[in-house]
Every structure is written in C-alpha cells, then in structure tokens.
Amino acid sequence: MSTNVALAIDQAFAAVPAPDADELRISTDDESFEDIEAFRGKRWQEIDAAQLASHQNALFWFSPTAFHYYLPAFLKAGLAAPDAIFVITLLQLLTPSPKENLNRFRELRWSQLGPQQIAVLDQWLGTIAETARPGGVFAQEIAEAQKAVRERRWW
Q1: Which residues, at least 6 apart from 129, have a Cβ–Cβ distance to it below 8 Å?
Q2: Exposed e or buried b for every residue in 11-45, given b needs 16+ CB within 10 A?
Q3: Under a CB-based contact definition with an 8 Å cutoff, are residues 106 and 40 in contact?
Q4: Interval 136-148: pLDDT, tens
Q5: pLDDT tens digits for 72-98?
C-alpha cells in the first residue's frame, strides 16, 4: 500500500511550483536560517529522510508556499519511517490548537493543498496508522490528524 501512496504523493504534488529562494521562510532569526538553508535550491525530490530529521523544525519556519512545496518530501519519507520526529510534527500541525493564533498559522499552510493533495494526505495518514500501536499516543495523534483532514478543518 505504501508504494501506491508514494506514487499518489508524486502525482498529487507534481505541478506544485518551487518557491522563490528568497521566500522560503517566515522568520529572520538564526535558528530558522539554519533549518531552512538546508532546503535552499533543492527540489523536494532531492531531500532525504536524514535531512528531514535534522531539519524537521523547518516545518515551522517555512512560508506557506515553501511548506506546500516541501510537504511531499516529508510525507514520502514518513512512509518509510512513520515514527520519525518529523511525522509527529506533521501530526501536531494537523491537529487544532486551543490557541487561535496557532490555528491561523496551521490554516495558512494546510489551506495551500488542493482536493487531490488532501485525499493523498488522508491516504498517508491511513498508511502510517497501520503501523501505530493500538491505543498508543501515536495512534491517538494520527486519529486526531485524520479527524482534522476528514472534517476539512483547514480547508
């Protein structure tokens, strides 16, 4: 199943344009620079799981456009490593927060996805759910993320 999801990710994100190199991040501090710099000038297909794990905070620093463009790298790597820290970060970003400013942050990023990409995100969640320990915290985070996607929380 993960092979089919990987192909679906490729297809769903094939036409997403790369962001302008000067518009990758929303912050100008040193921490964001280090995380984002690892992505500068690279296509999402060139990013490997080790780089994603080392720079998983980039998900917080990316501009909405960069988030949309690099998201498939995180999704595909998450198929092979569903317990990676960047997968947990994605799940948390999908889950609504009690803080409205954090919800706005999430909405600005997730709202970039089109219907085919949302469907692939749901497939991806289902695939990683198959590896989660029933009743575990990870399973609960996946279920909450699936609920947000299926209820179209961010779209």
Answers
A1: 139, 142, 143, 146
A2: ebbeebeebeeeebbbeeeeebeebbeebeeeebe
A3: no
A4: 768 889 999 999 9
A5: 999 999 999 998 989 999 999 999 999
Number of CB atoms found within 10 A of residue 97's CB = 13
Gap between the Cα atoms of 68 and 118, Å rounded: 11
- 81, exposed or middle or buried, with CB in 10 Å at 0-12, 13-18, 19+? middle
CA distance 106 to 20: 21
Both tokens of 149, joined, read 């996607």
Radius of gyration of the chain from its Cα atoms, rounded to whole angstroms: 15
Distance CA(97)–CA(28), nearest Å, equals 25
Pair 124, 12: CB distance under 8 Å: no
Cross-strand pairs, 62: 25
